[in-house]
Amino acid sequence: EAGVAQSPRYKIIEKRQSVAFWCNPISGHATLYWYQQILGQGPKLLIQFQNNGVVDDSQLPKDRFSAERLKGVDSTLKIQPAKLEDSAVYLCASSPSGSEQYFGPGTRLTVT
Amino acid sequence: AQKITQTQPGMFVQEKEAVTLDCTYDTSDQSYGLFWYKQPSSGEMIFLIYQGSYDEQNATEGRYSLNFQKARKSANLVISASQLGDSAMYFCAMRELTGNQFYFGTGTSLTVIP
After folding, report:
1. What are the residues of chain A with a beta carbon less than 8 Å away from any beta carbon of chain B?
2. pLDDT value at position B24?
3. Residue pairs between chains A and B whose CB atoms are closer than 8 Å
4. How many angstroms separate the CA atoms of A6 and A35, rounded?
5. Beta strands A107-111 and A10-13: pairing type?
6. Interface contact B100-A105, CB threshold 8 A
């Protein structure tokens, strides 16, 4: 069974630029999560989808972050414009039933 | 208040010994789940073990066991017979069924010494 796929693995951008991350969850997993993990900290949930609907986006900085999950499968997370404090690893995870989550390898973003 | 507290930023254990990683949680929900994840230096989060709030027996998965003490709101991870490959960050997490939110702790860095 293929795992959660994410791309790109690494991205370096300048502040005020835009960036997008892509996630392909495990086939059949209805729930998809995006997390931000700043160095030395635990993951922080940004947004949770159930199929193509948003379940929780209370910690998503909506002035600059957006996410979508069209057709209830792939998802993209966008930052526009990026700030220095957005430097982090962005983790995507999926779950078949909202219980255990399976994580992708993450995208390491550096904002200079 | 922190939902998940991991008080040990770093731990060392001798190879083949057992080690306990501490985790306490805070919730007013009656129904919740507790998880442990391993994050090696490669960065990927690996699911280790799950305990439901209504499970009466402690969860076990191979060398991993979860010491669940509901009254004390603790969910410590026990790794038996430590191996060098166990060196990694370990995160405790909780899912509250009300609101369906996940919370992660700040993690414990485990180093296994040969």
Report:
1. 33, 40-45, 48, 55-56, 89, 91, 93, 98-106, 108
2. 97
3. 53
4. 12
5. parallel
6. no
Average pLDDT value for residue range B9-27: 97
Instruction: Round to whole Å and give the CA distance between A30 and A51.
Output: 5
Burial label, B9 (beta-carbon count in 10 A; 0-12, 13-18, 19+): exposed
In the numeric block, which tokens belong to residue A78?
Answer: 């966008």
In whole angstroms, what is the distance from residue A18 CA to residue A82 CA?
A: 6
pLDDT of residue B110: 98
B97 CB-side CA count, 13 A: 10
* B92, B6 contact by CB (below 8 A): yes
| A91 token code pair | 């983790």
Read off the tokens for A66: 């957006």
Closest chain A residue to the Cα of B97, Cα to Cα: A98
A1: tokens are 């069974």
Average pLDDT along chain A, 112 residues, taken 10 residues at a time: 91 97 94 93 92 89 94 94 97 84 94 97
Query: What pLDDT score does B2 carry?
Result: 81
| Residue in this structure with the two tokens 């600059």, named with its chain if needed | A64
Residue B99 — pLDDT band, cuts 50, 70, 90? low
Contact assignment for A98 to B95 by CB distance below 8 Å: yes
